[in-house]
Amino acid sequence: MAEFDELPAAGNGLLDRRFFLRAGVASGAALMTASASSLERQEWMKGPGAGMSEAGAPSSHESHVVRASIGSLTGTTGTGASRTPLQLLDGIITPSRLHFERHHSGIPDIDPDQHRLVLHGLVERPLSFSLDALARYPMVSRIQFLECSGNSGASMAPEPAQGTCAALHGLVSASEWGGVPLSVLLEEAGVKPAGKWLIAEGADSAMMSRSVPMDKIMDDAIVALYQNGERLRPSNGYPMRLFLPGWEGNMCVKWLRTIKVVDQPSMTKDETSKYSDLQSDGVSTLFTFPMGVKSLITSPSPGLSMGAPGLYQISGIAWSGAGKIKRVEVSADGGKSWADAALDAHVMPKCLTRFRSAWRWEGSPAVILSRATDESGSIQPTRETVLKGRSTAAFYHYNGIQAWHVAENGEVTNVYV
Amino acid sequence: MAEFDELPAAGNGLLDRRFFLRAGVASGAALMTASASSLERQEWMKGPGAGMSEAGAPSSHESHVVRASIGSLTGTTGTGASRTPLQLLDGIITPSRLHFERHHSGIPDIDPDQHRLVLHGLVERPLSFSLDALARYPMVSRIQFLECSGNSGASMAPEPAQGTCAALHGLVSASEWGGVPLSVLLEEAGVKPAGKWLIAEGADSAMMSRSVPMDKIMDDAIVALYQNGERLRPSNGYPMRLFLPGWEGNMCVKWLRTIKVVDQPSMTKDETSKYSDLQSDGVSTLFTFPMGVKSLITSPSPGLSMGAPGLYQISGIAWSGAGKIKRVEVSADGGKSWADAALDAHVMPKCLTRFRSAWRWEGSPAVILSRATDESGSIQPTRETVLKGRSTAAFYHYNGIQAWHVAENGEVTNVYV
What we know:
2 copies of one chain form a homodimer.
Chain A: H1 2-6, E1 8-10, E2 14-15, E3 32-33, E4 68-72, E5 80-83, E6 101-103, E7 117-121, E8 127-129, H2 131-134, E9 140-147, H3 165-169, E10 172-181, H4 182-189, E11 197-202, E12 209-213, H5 214-220, E13 222-227, E14 230-231, E15 241-243, E16 256-262, H6 269-272, E17 277-278, E18 284-285, E19 294-299, E20 310-319, E21 325-331, E22 339-340, E23 342-343, E24 353-361, E25 366-374, H7 383-387, E26 403-406, E27 412-415
């Protein structure tokens, strides 16, 4: 395997990304020579298969690819979360059936014909929009991530929690979100000069509500009606939700029912009891809106056991609430040396970006990490940096570097470095 | 409604795309003033909703959003097609459950652990790849369209067929396709100098097969393993298919089983009995690989009745096998005058591109059309141009301009102009 030695990029077998452009890369133990018997027909070729249908479904062999770590929290029925199985996915789109959920009182069963979006408060003309009314307005659609600010909160614990990518970091997903810019609707209503914030409230029985500054609304907020081409799924706000690209998921109020224009943030229960970051000096930084630059190796990762030593693809996702991902570096020696990963074709603002590196694993224990940089120049911090100054009771907005330990037997576990 | 008169773009109420950047656009009849009763709580807010689940599903109110015009063709069980309900979707991603199907002998129920991809023929080392072996190779993922070359074939009939966008044009969809570049696997096997083509064959009982020139394979062909982030759906080739960006769907062989490197096209049954274009002089143009530049207004369209006169959004999709869409023009006066439509943020090569125009419909009969131009400079042809020189028995590769007639009562029908 002399080819490997020609393109080293960093320590412990990490190969230069130009390696992807080379042909003739023996993948080692997994490769089989074909023989005449390789062309024998399998049983499923011997008769006609299933016919067409109104809606396709995954293969029965993929029944393990479901949302994971479904957990109920204190509260009413349906209060809790389910997580995207990031370690079983590739690319950047999250299938809608696997988009993470976080509900504060379950999923309301909304009749779209009866649902209305009401704009009121500091406006010239309070307005009520049916779905038919919204359909007449210009729409936009964009592929962007959504992340719960509680994602990765387990990484603040003193000892590394053991679990899959889903369990540890599965409160992030990406979809094509389509809808009407909220700025258009607000200017239809006529925002009064004193209107500098708004309160968005959902039609769930928790009446989840958040305050949002007007600047963000006028920048890129939409009333989302479509997710990955079809109407929003109920667990993601059917028939409409607020979508604030790059900002914490909780603010993207689902089942959006009212927008009240106000002159200052309203300190609703949902933005004071949760989603604020307690510091070690006892002061809380109340509002942390954009999600920080972050990345995660999804393969290899816990639960995906490595096979025989040889060539592997390290693959993962990176994202930032500040814009596009500019660079992702990968280390296979615990952070002593780093190499640039290759980014897939689509690098879009406030979206997941898929990165890949080639790694020759020699079968020895190793620690692999990834580190993202966004177009604003922000670099994903270490765990130590994220925790600095925070109270041990803090939980939200964790974006530290994730390290995975690969054991000699191929098992992958969560470690702090 | 003086605003409308300020930004005319073309005849019969078509408004300039800058209209989208304006605020305060009264949408007319559909708009309602909010009152105190607008804030009353609906029934679904009065108790907790449904809890979290392993996999989400669409709302029960969206049960009409399914694949349509499911048709069986002469042949074995499972020979036929189902179509994407384009008129009910927005954005560019097609949800995998709604991706069109075209099978030649149904969907085989493949065990991924037993399935192999065999490379043989004019190669130095015939190879057999399991899914585990493929997982070690570098992958790429890209959002691209897939179109059956029989799509829109009904438009070659002497009289305009009546049906929805699904029925008439629903054999096109777009997904994020992820997989291993076939060039990497072929160079691993070592292509002999005489190897200029390959035959790709599927593991369905029809053993669907097509010849593909080596240049295309080395350019951007992949062995696709992922569709919209998860493993391919069975109806789209699980566990692997050939994907040739921009080329006719039939060549993107599903359930990919063997790749045989050969020195010339093999004239398989599937590329001679079908997918070739008979000309009026009796000669057939056998191979038409890339799909031509094309567009389609999906809203308004047949089956979506218009309401009261006033402002409407004209929305549709455009695509080209040659690369990116550069421009889409829309006409509301039967093609007498045209105006540029706004393109959504993501304009990607060999992908659907969503376009939108603002239209003030005055309630009179109108004919609306769209016309796409791609980055190679190709302009979508008229129906007359597409048909010129073709036999009346020709059926494939129709990319002519589609015209919709809007009647006074809001009904939309298919017309030839």
